[in-house]
Amino acid sequence: MEEDKLVCAENCPHINKINKVKEREPKADEYAKLSNVFKLFSDETRLKIICSLLKEELCVCDLCELLNLNQSQVSHQLQLLRNSKLVKFRRDGKQIFYSLNDKHVELIIQMALDHILEEEEKNELL
Amino acid sequence: MEEDKLVCAENCPHINKINKVKEREPKADEYAKLSNVFKLFSDETRLKIICSLLKEELCVCDLCELLNLNQSQVSHQLQLLRNSKLVKFRRDGKQIFYSLNDKHVELIIQMALDHILEEEEKNELL
DNA sequence: ATATCATATGAGTATTCGTTCATATGATTA
DNA sequence: TAATCATATGAACGAATACTCATATGATAT
Question: Is the CB of A81 under 7 A from strand C?
């Protein structure tokens, strides 16, 4: 008849800490949006597309050539990026040119690169 | 007998642009590392764990209580974060306390939050 | 020593997600 | 108005992955 125990018995959970964390945490829907953004960056193919668009507006076939991917692959990934408004696009005749829709993208990638570089430095010290 | 055509025929691919992009792009192994980092942030459960650890060192059972997750779930996700060196941990008696291992984590999340907020502002203008 | 507590880990399952193949759409050119 | 070009889209398949359940481990307390 005991209830399932979620928390450990004694000192734990540390209620003070937990309340402190709860105050500052993102809202429930922000977690969903955040994880969705990171999901877009988490696939190597998409990430390459995003990085390619960092500096230059490019058409689908530029991306295919640049990244050595087939057209369907690129278009499918671009659709995901479009749906999340991470990229914008304009048609010019038969071609469609994509570009990034938000200046934060570059910052996010730069922070992650800094993180990776620090990891590498740590490893070199071993 | 024709080869599969990867690029469009005429103006495209825009060789100048492509070369320009190629100069600045991350190296091949950096893409893999980058996407792995973002993959860690891309699951909502892991993201909640990471955000909880932003301000406070917490034990497993704190995280269970705080996020309303079962112990196995939390431990499995912590293992992924450990393997990628995103968190560090110390044992104190029966409990194990986790904390973030890198100051860039907060910056990455903050940039992503800024991105989301800007998206929301754009939507409100409609 | 044994029981209990906090956490870790392995296997199995279900779901998510990326790629491929085939086809559709929408614009241009002949 | 056909044919072709650039891109989009749908369905199917396979791989990756998150969760659950059961069990193992390592520390403490009795």
Answer: no
